[in-house]
Amino acid sequence: MRISVFGCGYLGAVHAASMAELGHDVVGVDVDAAKIAALGEGHAPFFEPGLPDLLERGVRSRRLRFSTDPADAADAEVHFLAVGTPQSEESGAADLRYVDAAVEAIAAIVRPGALVAGKSTVPVGTAARLAPILEARGAKLAWNPEFLREGFAIEDTLRPDRLVYGVSDDADAAVLDEVYATAIEAGTPRIVTDYATAELVKVSANAFLATKISFINAMAEISEATGADVTSLADAIGLDARIGRRFLNAGVGFGGGCLPKDIRAFQARADELGVGESLHFLREVDAINLRRRQRVVDVAAELLDGDVAGKRIAVLGLAFKPDSDDVRDSPALDVAARLSALGADVVATDPEAIGPALRRVADLATAPTVEEAARDADLVVLLTEWREYRDLEPERLGAVTRGRRIIDGRNVLQPQAWRNAGWEYRGLGR
Ligand code: UGA
Fold first, then answer.
1. If DSSP states are collapsed to H, E and C, what string results for 76-133?
2. CA neighbours within 13 Å on the CB side: how many for 270?
């Protein structure tokens, strides 16, 4: 099929490359000329495992092109809308200016009979507001939310666990079936529904995941007050199939470009709709999450005789999660900045996210390797569970640090192994 993707950020670039991989003829459109130039040469503008290969293959096969000119997308049968919906500073609501601009741009070039499929995460009611703009041009709108996880984005796009189509007409579902024929033949469940439900599926899924994480982090707080171990607790309750162990990892909490902003935008939308009370619990979810960052700072002070000022602290991890260079609302970067603000001599490292972190916190001291970050450190703080940090050997790390003190902000190390090597080990809620 002839496909366009408007917006070539995280979601759009992955979607465009994946659609080309499935055999479609794809053009990605974005207003950012530098990004379009890089993508056009097959270069990924951010770190995502597998994406460079896919881009290169797509571009080489000529099934994948990029352009800053919407007119280059005019003959597409399906236009995907994949622009960002950032959080507004004042209200926490989603800022829809990029969605509105992209719909205007598509409306100006769309051919009658084409389908526009929204993938961006939007407040419920957005699709119903936009549909008439496209219908006036003889085109249709569907809402087809995306559930990809950073770090697994290609896999999640090529082999999703479900497809959700919000449509105003069942015939539009058939068009999306053609786009996703490979996944459908593989048995991927598909839910065809109305616009509002499709929009809500996306935000409620993220709200549920955020709640699950904050639930276990609340149990971590209780565990800290009682001497219980939240990791064993999660293992035990997770064995109940109704609960499930995934997304029950207590630690420094959730961050990234989705969960934090989505729960805030969802609350703002519920307030507008006069049903704010239904989502009041998401304020608690947010508050529990943010408290975990301060908890790490407090434990650091405890381990360093009450004051972090003037102490050398190695921070391992800056990305909001491993296998990503994304530092948007990253708990790790936030903790590093809080410790620095208290006068600690912080040196941070990350396998991929140092560049993006420095673009946000310019005066952050960084080092390219764990050894360099940890040299002469009084305390090591692990905040993003990259494989290489999970596999750290206590003796080898202890050979370069000044003190043997470690905070395991993701509860991924074996406490006994570290204690046996003379480390003062502190997890969160263990
Ligand atoms: C999230 C959702 O998982 C995706 O399904 C969704 O498509 C995406 O947002 C989106 O809206 O675009 P992502 O932001 O890539 O994906 O990251 P997650 O894997 O959900 O992790 C979010 C945060 O939660 C990370 O900071 C992670 O460290 C933290 N987390 C996750 C925990 O603290 N504990 C856990 O048990 C799991």
1. CCEEEECCCCCECCCCCCECCHHHHHHHHHHHHHCCCCCEEEECCCCCCCHHHHHHHH
2. 19
Nearest atom within ligand 1 for CA of residue 151: 15
Determine the atom of ligand 1 nearest the C-alpha atom of 248.
36
Active-site residue flag, 258: yes
Mean pLDDT to the nearest integer, 33-55: 96
Nearest residue by C-alpha to atom 20 in ligand 1: 149
**How confident is residue 401, by pLDDT bands cut at 50, 70 and 90?**
very high
Residue 64: pLDDT over 90: yes
The arrangement of strands across the sheet holding 190-193 comes to: 64-67, 25-29, 2-6, 78-81, 115-118, 140-143, 163-166, 190-193
Average pLDDT over residues 400-421: 98
- Cα 387–chain centre separation: 18
**Token pair for residue 203?**
């935000």
| Residue 90: band (very low, low, confident or very high) from pLDDT cuts 50, 70, 90 | confident
Can you give the pLDDT at residue 111? 98
Q: What is the DSSP string of 132-172?
A: HHHHTTT-EEEE------TTSHHHHHHS-S-EEEE-SSHHH
C-alpha 363 to ligand 1 mean position (Å): 28
Residue 259 Cα to ligand 1 midpoint, Å, equals: 7
189: Cα within 13 Å, side-chain hemisphere: 3
Rounded mean pLDDT, 336-364:
97
Q: Is residue 417 very low, low, confident or very high in pLDDT (cuts 50, 70, 90)?
A: very high
* Pocket of ligand 1 contains residue 203 by CB under 6 Å: no
